[in-house]
Amino acid sequence: MLDYLKDLCLLNGISGDEEDIRKYIISELDEKCTYNTDNMGNLIVFRKGSKATKNKVMLSAHMDEVGFIVTYICDNGYLRFTNVGGVDSKVICGRSVSVGKKGIAGVVGNKAVHLTEGDESKSVPEISKMYIDIGAKSKEDAEKFVSVGDAVYFNSDFVSFGKDKIKAKAIDDRFGCAVMLKMLHEDLEYDAYFAFLVQEEVGCRGAGAAVFGIRPDYAIVLEATTASDIAGVSDEDSVCKQGKGAVVSFMDRSTVYNRTMFKNAFAAAKKYGIDIQPKTTVAGGNDAGVIHKSCEGVNTIAVSLPCRYIHSGTSVADVKDMKSCYELAKALFTEYADA
């Protein structure tokens, strides 16, 4: 699973430009899988199990990552840009980025701090005030390499460090994709649908189309969520903690989760000896917000990986938590398929 995660995190794919992620996943499928790509770009994979299911279960994860898009090329060769998905401007300025399919190197810049005055020197610049420097001398020079509408990505290596920690961009939600790829290479007891979704970061746009195509009875959304167990943050505000296992939500900004499924997740974790924790803050959202209210309604649960510094080029996750999420997803899949 960690090998899949590394490969996926080193690929680029902002919302609406998930093609390279989709191609990689397809390349890793074996002859036991059948798949199709719908009109939204979602990749729907079916894997036949040794038994037919009593209930149709869909596991889902989104392929897209947060990033940026070029909006204008200035006369001096600098690029103006805007964010794709929720990116805090505090994590952008001074970062190394790559632009377009050619991976043109760039740096996000802003007015030098010693030239700022008053409140400007104490505030974080808005994205609209930043620019990307690709070393071009003029607009004409820049246009030889990039175009308006090109995607922009954080440059970030996949690094193992500390005790069981990894650092990378796009852990949200290449982790969920990696979990599903691992499951797809195992002998499953029951038939299963795996939905690799598009455009979650800009409003969960792919999820609805996938649900209407599959029409599941149950859905397990595999995600990453904010872990604020860092210096200066109290326990009650930490949301979840790394090293404490899979995170299961009772409510976020787009979903009030099925109470029975929430309780059953903790019962299953106890039964199989899986580390689990609740998400203790009502914040964020994911594809569950669309999935649970599609068609006639879908019984939905989210299983999330605690992730520090999420939606940045340097997200951090714990390998032990990854294993807990994977084990819980498998346990819940088996229970829902035979419920």
Structure, explained:
By secondary structure, this protein is of the alpha+beta class. It is 24% helix and 26% strand. The chain has an eight-stranded mixed β-sheet, with helices on both faces. Strands 5-4-9-6-7-8 form a six-stranded antiparallel β-sheet, with no helix packed on it. A three-stranded antiparallel β-sheet has the order 10-11-17. The mean pLDDT is 94.
Question: Briefly, what is this?
Answer:
The chain has 339 residues and is an alpha+beta fold.
What's the layout of helices and strands?
Elements: H1 2-9, H2 19-27, E1 33-37, E2 43-47, E3 57-62, E4 67-73, E5 79-84, E6 96-99, E7 104-109, E8 131-133, H3 139-142, E9 151-154, E10 159-161, E11 165-168, H4 171-184, E12 192-197, H5 205-214, E13 218-226, E14 246-248, H6 259-272, E15 276-278, H7 288-291, E16 299-307, E17 315-318, H8 319-337
Parallel strand pairs: 3-12, 3-13, 13-16, 14-15
Antiparallel strand pairs: 1-2, 2-12, 4-5, 4-9, 6-7, 6-9, 7-8, 10-11, 11-17, 14-16
Spans of 5+ residues with little confidence (pLDDT < 50)? none
Q: What proportion of the residues form beta strands (DSSP E)?
A: 25-35%
Strand segment count: 17
The helix fraction, in percent, is 10-25%
DSSP summary: helix tally: 8
Mean pLDDT: 94
Describe the main β-sheet briefly: 8 strands, mixed
Outline, from the CA principal axes? globular
Strand order of the largest sheet: 1-2-12-3-13-16-14-15
Compressed to H and E, one letter per element, the order equals HHEEEEEEEEHEEEHEHEEHEHEEH
